[in-house]
Amino acid sequence: MEKVAEILTEASAEVVEPRFRALAAGEVMEKSPGDLVTVADREAEVIITRRLRELLPVPVVGEEAVAADPSLARALHTEPACWLVDPVDGTANFVAGRPDFAVMVSLIRDGEAVAAWIWQPMTRTAYAAELGAGAWRDGRRLTRAAAADTPEKWRGSMKPWFLARDVFPGLRDRVHAFGQVTGGRRSAGVEYPQVADGDMDFLVYWRTLPWDHAPGSLLVREAGGVSARLDGTPYRADPPGGVDGLLVASDPQTWEQTRAILLGLPD
Predict the structure, then answer these.
(1) Which of 11, 139, 182, 261 is the most buried (most CB within 10 A)?
(2) Are the CB atoms for 119 and 126 separated by under 8 Å?
(3) Where are the alpha helices (DSSP H) in the chain?
(4) 142 and 128 Cβ atoms separated by less than 8 Å
(5) Number of C-beta neighbours around residue 65 at 10 A
(6) Alpha helices in 97-187 (DSSP H)
(7) Distances (CA, A) of 89 to 155, 172, 216, 254
(8) pLDDT at res. 267
(9) What is the DSSP annotation of 200-235?
(10) Residue pLDDT, tens place only, 8-32
């Protein structure tokens, strides 16, 4: 666990942090309209990939490598084990000079995250989780307390304009049942730790790329929370193009009640 954490912090220090608010012309590109990538993303992924393979020689599914060759993501289902890498989660924030970004890795076995690491360079905060063993922030065990007793006190994030209207009819009206709902921080590597730390009570996502959600889902679950599809199926690291929709919550009761509100289910 400690060795992977070192790999993330060292790659970040070498090629990501020096470019924060210092990206040169030509160092920011679009993979697709609105989907940014920088030289920091690409160089960090190369470094992390090489060092992870030295640690455990299994396939590496990296966000930028998959952008170039989508077939690489099949390893999540076809290989007994693989590394999953997000070299800069929150690239749009990174490009804009906002500090909400992270470097993330998870180890996947038979489609399930069994270990995860999240490094937040700007706050110098490290999160880690191991299946069945717990979750930690800077080496201290995380145990998430249940949310308050009523939704009017809950804090969450979602982007209603991204959610399918046929799945969430009337959602814009129902979000008023919660105490506070924001549009999120544009980085799963920042948002999931907010739930594990107790700063947020729930998160709602629609598009769930595996490198964004495998690390945080394991972190929240190992801290005592829930990360599951809308039908209650626990989150698994599916290749892009799989199932949409994911609800993350501080505890099982909060998950169930949040789901009922979001979907307009009877009390």
Answers:
(1) 11
(2) yes
(3) 2-11, 39-55, 63-68, 75-78, 91-96, 171-174, 188-197, 210-222, 252-263
(4) no
(5) 18
(6) 171-174
(7) 22, 28, 12, 27
(8) 66
(9) -SEEEESS--HHHHHHHHHHHHHTT-EEE-TTSPBP
(10) 999 999 999 999 999 998 999 998 8
